[in-house]
Fold this protein.
Amino acid sequence: MTIHPPQSGDIPAPVSFDELASHLAEQTHPSEIHGYLCGLFSAGVHPGVEQWLEQLAEQMGDKSINESARQLLSQLYLHTQNELNSGSLAATLLLPDDDEALGQRTQSLGIWCQSFISGFGQGLESRQVSEMVEEVLRDFAEISLIETAEESEESEKLYVEVSEFVRLAWLNVYAEVCGLPELSGDDGSSGQQGVNKTLH
């Protein structure tokens, strides 16, 4: 069945982590899907919904994606594309809700970062990028290895800081590679500073 994108003027609604996870039935991780998609977009690659769904099925070992999951994935694609095209700081990472265990959220953030690197690398191919982009990719590789030992107020605060760092760094990579003005956070920071953090 063909996926029908929203009509002109319609803004695709966001897709929740839990909703997508329930429809994928453990075939793959929602943060992996979103990270990879954001990596492709940030490299300037927009394959189109149908082509992306075909690529996704191949990455999942040619597993079939049921119709309800396809609709949600299409919605995720269009919503993410719309967020990035808006040129604002509104774009978000697809991660578990804040009421989920910190360990699960931390693992999902690492998966997102690793998948972003994969998608970005595939989309970029052999093109050169700036030192800022290379630094972000190094940071993402480091963050992908982060583990959390125990629940604590300090660990929770650090998770929030690192996830916000990742979000802003992603948006700056997209802005630079795709030729948009550099984005900055509420405090004026660009999200490009290095990160060397472990959640305890």
